[in-house]
Amino acid sequence: MIINSLLIFFSLVVTAAILVPRDWRWTLFGLAMTYLFGFILIVQIWPLPLAAVKLLTGLIGVILLSTTKMNTEVQEEPIGSISSRIFILLLAILSWIIVLATISRLNAWLPIEYTNLFIGMVFLICGIIKFSTDQRIFNVIVGLLTLLSGFDIIYSSLEGSALVTALYALIVISICILGSYLEGIFSGEGEE
Amino acid sequence: MSAPLVWIILPFFASIVLIFFRKNYQLVALIQTAFCFFLVLLLLVVRFGDVDSTQGLTIKLTTTFNLLGRTLEFKNSDKFVIGIFYSILAIWSAALFIYNKHSKIIPLGLALSSLLLAAIAVEPFLYSALLIEVAVIIGSMIAVDLTTGKSKGIIRALVFFTLGMPFILLAGWYLAGGETSPVNDTQLVQATVLLGFGFVFWLGIFPFHSWIPLIAEESEVPDGLYILAILPFAIFIILLKYLNGFVWLRDYDLVYQALLLFGLVLTFSGAIWATFQTRIKKLVGYLTIIYSGFLLIALGLNSNQGFQIFSELLLPRFLSLYLLMISFLAIEKKGVIEQISDLDSLFYRFPIASISILMALFSVTGMPLTVGFLPVQSLYQESARNSTLIAGLVIGSNALLSISFLRIFVVIMQPLADEFDAVSILDDLKENKFLAAIIVIVILAGIIPNLFFPSFNQILSSFEFLAR
């Protein structure tokens, strides 16, 4: 019970780390944490190797993105004001409240562990907020990966198969490769 | 040997192998074209499964291929759908070879086609959502244009397809076991809503359509149009598979009403945007939206005739996009076209390509003597039988489009103000012959519809419960 409460609390901190700071290092740290949380939750349901595949692919993806970011960092200008960050934080808090208010009804429909559903939903909505509030390629990719990470926590609790794990890993890696490719090519080339 | 191994696994690995030889672009393009034609021709002499045949030479292949505990399965009736995927890739690759145009379709098109076919073939087919997502990522890699520095369309497509995937997967989980056993009303509504959201994102239903014109504009012409030709087609086949697979879903009237509504919204909104469009490539994007609308309306009619119209609409859709693609390739060899105004007096500079563009555009509206005539007229007829309002909206949309295309016709035929050097179609004889051949096919299909359209009805044989 205490561990679950701690997991839920730290998942909120992780979403804040993804959404609020300007520095891409914090964003990627938050993304890496979502994979770690996913691993901790999924390993309770699935065999260790299958859960580890998800963690490893996620971390490989984070490394890919951070490598690209390190090479393109010089060209990037920090954008966004304090007010925009406060707005995003408030948006995140609103999403947590919505999840908290609706989770029991959702839990009746999706019969999985409360902690898994809550954390999955929090990550999923965090991803949507991330790519909705920032149009830069890197942030959209991080948003998509966070959304997928959240959905994976929920879906893994419902359905487990080697093919799903393999395809999910392929999707995560492919999105990271595409993100690195686009970020590497287009950074500082007139993207809106 | 199994059918999925030949038409899914083999092309996928061929694509990977060909990447390493891409420096010899023309050779790889030729190999890909020949390989795709070979895969199509092979379909004519093979039988999937234990089907008795007394006709000449036939090779029997097993229908299933096991992959990580799940199955890829092709039935004998799927041969036409497989044929369409590789025929389209073959003619696209052939055009790229003839025009010597560098494109990432060579060789990633093979990987994309094989992944889309895997999404159609996978059993249980709720896993198709994951394969579609992988295919979309490969498609994004094809569509990205390194020269323009624009990626808005690709990113939006990726976002919308990723948003659609969870809905389809959850619906699939929800429906697992409901293929034959009845589900209660609440479950029915919930599952339908989930599926509905998934397909709304995937098919680019308004307001999630913005990636389509953006990809058409931002990508290189062959890349963007290939993605717009093949991706929605695969989604439509998966939609049909869902409708065919779940007895209660195909008997649920609300589903067909929703399809009709979405189709009308796409057709009408697409026509309005196309009418006021000044950028020619974006206009082509809106044409694909309009055609998706036609296809949805045909499905929403929920009748034998409607399903038949759906299959017949596919031919003008592919041919129009192909004609536009090769015309733009011919024109862009000597200049860039962005705005409709760039087509000014085009007929005097590129006569064959101009005719080709006009033929493609008027095929969409179903003008007589074009390939679109039969299916679009049938759509008017069948929708009028269903509801005058639906028919009115479809005809109104096409009227708007026709006005817009007449405007393009005037621009293309605008006499040159100054004296000009006469052009000869012998200048680019090989390309012009190729273009002319495709135009002849389009006209032939319009004049003698029985030559081409009946074979497209074979698509429906994969969905035996829909075509009653």
TrEMBL record, chain A:
The chain crosses the membrane at residues 26-46, 82-102, 114-131, 137-155, 162-182. The keyword Membrane applies. Keywords: Membrane, Transmembrane, Transmembrane helix. It comes from the Bacteria. This is Uncharacterized protein. It comes from Pelolinea submarina.
Automatic annotation (TrEMBL), chain B:
Keywords: Cell membrane, Membrane, Transmembrane, Transmembrane helix. It is found in: Cell membrane; Membrane. It comes from the Bacteria. It is a multi-pass membrane protein. The chain crosses the membrane at residues 6-21, 28-48, 80-98, 105-122, 128-146, 158-176, 188-212, 224-243, 255-276, 283-301, 313-331, 352-376, 388-413, 434-453. Residues 186-390 form the NADH:quinone oxidoreductase/Mrp antiporter transmembrane domain. InterPro entries: CPA3_Na-H_Antiporter_D, ND/Mrp_TM. GO terms for cellular component: plasma membrane. Belongs to the CPA3 antiporters (TC 2.A.63) subunit D family. This is Proton-conducting membrane transporter. The lineage of its organism: Bacteria, Bacillati, Chloroflexota, Anaerolineae, Anaerolineales.
